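quick one before i forget lol
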Amino acid sequence: STSERRYSKDSVKARETIKDVSFLVLGRSGPYPQIVLPTGGGYWMDGVSSCTINIDDDIVGCMPTTSSSCARFKLETDDTSHCYKRHFIGREHHDFYAMDNNIGPLVLSVRTETISSQEHFRIMLRTRHGTVHEIVPASALGDRPSASRMARLLCDEVMADRFCPVAFPGGSEMILQYDEHVLTNTYKFGVIYQKFGQSTEEELFGNACRSAAFDEFLGVLGDRVLLKNFKGYRGGLDTQHGQTGTESVYCKFRQREVMFHVSTMLPFTVGDTQQLQRKRHIGNDIVAVVFQEENTPFSPTMIASNFLHAFIVVQPIDSCTEKVRYRVSVTARDDVPFFGPTLPAPSIFRKGQEFRNFLLTKLINAENAAYKSDKFAKLAERTRSSLLDTLYGNLKERAEFYGIPLLETTDSTPHLGLFHSVKKAITGRSRSVSHEMSSAGTRASTLELSSPGRSNGFNRKSVPNAEILSKSSTSSTSDWDGSDNDSVELEHEHEHEHEHEHDSDTGMESMSSTEVPHSNRLSCSFCADGAVVSSHEDEARKLDELLTDVEKLKTEKLDLLRQNVTCKTDIKKLKERQSALAGDLDRANEEIARLRKLLKRPPGNGNDGYVAVHQSLGTDRPPVYVMDVNS
């Protein structure tokens, strides 16, 4: 398989590296470079200097150690995952979804912003290839923007013309959950202890004990914690039965949890040259720290692993003294992009909080950069495709459940913009519903629209897109011309918790729950040629019929309730009768038992209570005694 071939190549490179490192150490005297790249290539390195001078306190003192703080060392994360929560959630925006025959499911998010007194569109497009986030001026989309045009502006491969709105409760939360699936606040890193002259994987994992200098460095990384019943992030270590050791190194850094797999703290198996218990954890990490007790070279191919992509090599200077410093170098695979913070020249740090912040930031950024390598990028694309398919299916299923209609835009009416069309659709729908409710003798709730400052709904007065974005002076009451397949959809904003309203099929307006049941939904349909079909008389008649049916159902419900009460009363009486009969039956059984006992009793001397009856067939037969009921 591919992994086996890769492992075989790594083994060959490891053997070549062992020869190079052994020749380097045995062939000449020090100082030696911290990192030796394999002769076959495949890795890059940073921070390895050919300078062999001794670094004194004056040179180290010139290093920028006073401007420390975490703000100086930036965590390199994908801000696209935060964009939807930061710029869309809680603000007026529109979400759409579509199925493209070329690139698969699409999920689009759009909102308007005013930048330097000019209208702009903030657009997010999610595809199987990733998420694109851009801010474009309204002029880039012409006089009549549409969802399909916005999608093509961000991705040329988009061919879909018909987009459906996410106009139902919970849609934004589903999209947010998809965007944040790549976010993590937990990390695990390996820590490998290398003694002088060690050049093989077996030697690195075979160190049973650690030095005082290594313990001092572990104190910089984090706190030593007991694994038994540990409640924080365990990083795959056993916190119940102690099968992965009794303690480890753990820290919290900038709202993130980090667990270190320290090679000397993991179980040491006597007789196991490969120390699989240790390699099982460190070999499955993506980034590892290599602590060199003395000046000795390290090569990334010493450890055969399909997961390890980056190494931070640290070497102490004057360890266990007040002047302790650390020389730092970095090596990573070629397909891992460069990651910060940038190493200073020379890359030597004093022990302290500054060095700790730099090292932890470098480790986290190294793992985030490794995810962009070929191996992890393919895994991420596979996961992203699966989650996007699931999101599209859930959005489509929820839309069908709520009965969301499709709002279409056309190119033949250039003065109608995206939000202008949405506003017209909502306004026409509100008028139709209001007319129907008034003609039926009921009251329809008004279409309440919130301002952009509010997180829920739309504000009819605050929608500037009808006049600004469409850039047209034509009347907003003109009809639609359906000669194109471009479509726009209306995005649903979450309801206030205190607003007890029942959504119609678009989720944008509500009817009075006290007068019209929420199960009866009214919708304004748009025909293909763009004409708005609204026969108020027919719809009013249908509404009257529905109300009549509701009244009939209410009457039938009351009748059923009465019958239910009557049946319960009858059942209660029958149960009482049953109890009485059961009591009579018990008493009868007792009487029968008593009579049977009397029949079985032998006659006494005085024959008390018995009357002798002589047989008439003969006088020599004994008399038959019969109980005298009068005695």
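fyi Residues 50-69, 407-417, 421-535, 609-619 have pLDDT under 50 and may be disordered.
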